[in-house]
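At this stage, I put together one protein's amino acid sequence and its backbone structure tokens, which the following lines show:
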Amino acid sequence: MEMIIDFPGGARVDAHFRGHRLATDQPAGGGGADSAPTPFEVFLASIGTCAGIYILGFCRQRGLPTEGIRILQRNHFNPVSGMTDRIELEIQVPPRFPKHYRDALIRSADLCKVKKTLEQPPLFEIVTKEIETA
């Protein structure tokens, strides 16, 4: 899978893939216009939304309604390094959600591909290449 990352102006950096555009920007205090989430916010959101996809699939397979279900994601940062050192996902369900499926929701969220990739991170290779101009 390839993505094209470009620089449309200001502090914006956009990703293009599969016919989509994912815009990112920096907050006003960071030199941007705050017109889109930061790349790191998109990264963090990918964790909760990925878990949500697996929860949605679990519920759909069993004909369970997803109305009222949500995930509260808490991102904890190390005060010294500023790096994320813990991420909590709290799956909130309405009282009518069957109690015997609650642990299965946790197991479903645990299957998230983003989470699994973080647990076994890929190797990074960064190179430069001069492009040919017409």
In short: The chain has a mean pLDDT of 97.
